[in-house]
């Protein structure tokens, strides 16, 4: 039986992973650990084979005033937890990083293993720095597995996609412009994490859906599923194409950004 500690109690991804593994009670023993405050430091990590670190700050507006908090939580805490896991004899440390380490909102070329990282947000910078620090801890008995997923979505998921759905429900109009974005459902992500754990994987991984997402298509599918009447038009497409790369919100919604298949 694999004993897994999820550091970041109540997180969307961590809790989804725990619930998924509950289907296999004879194979996995899973616990979520609250990382708020200092109580986690007293927890005995030696009883686990794997630590899956999902605690972090995301989906809040970045300001100069919260820069230090990003690094404290998304970098310094990660290193502290990894060190504690290593000292306790944990065999594998799985870290939830992000596609944001590349610093791209759109790109005509796919991201590959050879693509350079140039993060331009506190979130992306803190994640990349955490990656480098924990990689330095790795040795044969302590495997470090880093995940750089694109946008994760699913029922009740936080993030931009559900905000977009909410906006469309209000305005009932949406452009038909087609794009390609790497993304991953939370259902597929937890299956991939299970595989990395089963294989005791090490290195950097890029989990994504088998097919790229088109914003127009996924909005249309969601609205039809809910029975929401929406007018789909090409009228705004020329303006949107002009604004991609110039306006952040437009770029995130309609620009291309994919991992290589």
TrEMBL record:
Record SUPFAM superfamilies: NAD(P)-binding Rossmann-fold domains (SSF51735)
Domain annotation NAD-dependent epimerase/dehydratase: ranges: 5-172
Stretch forming the signal peptide: none
InterPro entries noted in UniProt: Epimerase_deHydtase (IPR001509), Lipid_A_modif_metabolic_enz (IPR050177), NAD(P)-bd_dom_sf (IPR036291)
Protein name as catalogued: NAD-dependent epimerase/dehydratase family protein
